Amino acid sequence: MEEIPPSSQSMDADALQKLIHLLKATDDPLIQEQALITLSNSAAFSVNQDIIRNLDGLSVIGGMLLDSVPTVKEKALNALNNLSMNIKNQEEIQVYIMEVCKNIESAPLNSDLQLAGLRLLTNMSVTNDYHYKMINKIPCFLHLLSEGSERTQIQVLKVLVNLSANPITTRNFLKAQVPSLLLLFDNCINTDILLRALVFAANLKKNMNNEDGSMREDEYSEDSVFSILCKDSTAFAQKLASLLHHPDTDVKEQVVRLLTQ
Length: 261
Known about the structure:
The structure is a single chain. By secondary structure, the chain is mainly α. The chain folds into two domains: 124 residues, Leucine-rich Repeat Variant (Alpha Horseshoe); 116 residues. It contains 15 helices and no strands.
């Protein structure tokens, strides 16, 4: 087994190139994992992010998302996540967004593979540039919000907050059915989840208010996000009123933002 160089900022272009060549040449999942971990660690340094891109490392790592071994896919997603801190890298990584979404959807609920995919989408959705590639997966993300563990809920909410800030996603969100959405707006909910859920709802209401009345109520079903937040909003308003007494200042700030929209 070829020795994998240590992961540090001191890895030069030659060492990184050997690592990428090793990744292309081997079918051994254990070697692939170790190579991806080393690339992921080295990608934490901005200078290496450019080197890896210039060595065509992004396409090699992205190709690992098609691997049948979940742990290899997970390590590839972790590497792409670190590499996606770079705007030029995002331009190349965006071609894998649909594959990342497929992995999130097919992975076991709350698995490390699913969380790794959500972390990458969080970075890739910070700007609006690639939202159009994720918009059709909104029902999947909302399903994870309803069914996932706290760790999964926090991670998927980061994606939802980014997407909901973009007005082109508003109708897709409002039409989606999430009967359990109200359960998130409660004083007993983890503050990290509650705060992000409030920001998500506030983004949607802000974008709705900017629609100039073009939204028709009959477009939306009874369990839709629209019905919960707007049409039959008495229960939601009661939830918000109780949250005005929440001890967290940021939570109260978002509640006021919602109540005054």
